[in-house]
Write the C-alpha cells for this entry.
Amino acid sequence: MSQTKTIGYLGPKGTFTKMAVDGLFNGGDKRSFSTIPECIDAVAADEIQIGVVPLENAIEGTVHLTIDYLIHQVRLPIVAEIVVPIKQHLLVRKDFTGTLEDIEQIHSHSHAIAQCHQYIHKNMPNAGIHFESSTGRAAEVVAASSANIAAIGNHLAAKTYDLNIYEESIHDYANNHTRFAVLSKRTEPISVTLPEEAYKTSLMITLPSDYAGALHQVLSAFAWRKMNLSKIESRPMKTGLGNYFFIIDVNQPYDHVLFPGVQAEMEALGCKVEILGTYPTYHVNPS
C-alpha cells in the first residue's frame, strides 16, 4: 500500500473528525480546515491527498452540507468510511468553581447541541446556546474566555485546550455514532492502521419524473437480486419543488455482475445512476 501524504479534516484540533483521522491513519501530515467545503475543495484542488468529513450521525441523521456539496459543487469519490462512537462531555475552564446554574452560555456544533438537548433542557434551561463550526472550536472559545461559559465536546478537546470535564457522557442517547467519509482522487489503496470490517457501495439515483411506483421500481431492482440496502435518502435537486435524487447505500462492494444489471434496469426506466464510491468501513474506538 502507498504511504499517506496529507490528510485534511474538519478542525481545529479536538474534533471528532480529528479522532477519526488519528484512529485510522498512523502517519501522514494532518491539516485542519475550518469548514467542510474548505476541506473538500482542498482535495479537489490537489492541495491535500485525502479529506475526512462527517457524513451521518446516528441521532441527528445525515450531515446535509457534506452530501449536498459533494453532489452539487465538487464530485469526489468516497474511498473509505470511518465509524466513531460519540461521547459528549460538558467542558469548562479549570478555574471554574461554580455550578450548572452559573453557566451562562453553552458553545458547540449544532449537532452536538441537539444530541444533548434533554440534558441542557433539564439542567441548564436558561443558558444561552451558541453554535460553533465544530466541537473543537467550541472548546477553543471557552478556553480563551473569562466568562462563565461551557462547551460540549469530547475528551480530546478537553485535553487539547486544557479544560476540565465537568460532567461526562451528557448525550441523550447512549448508542451514538458518526460516520465519516474519506475522500480522495487517488485510485490506489490508502494506507491505514485498522482492518476493514465491512464493504459498502453508495449510489446516486435520479428519477426521470415523479410518477406512481417509480421508487418501488428502483428498489425492486435491488430486491430481486437480494442486495441489502443499509440506507436510502432523498435530497432536493435544487432545480424546483418536487425534484429529488436518492442516495442509496448497498452493503457489498461493487462487482461486474449485479451492479451493472441494476444500472441497466434503472436506465431502462429512464433513471440516471452514478456510483459515489465503493469502499471499506473501519470502526475506531478512541480510548
In short: The mean pLDDT is 90. The radius of gyration is 21 Å. The first helix runs from residue 16 to 24. The chain is about 25% helix and 35% strand.
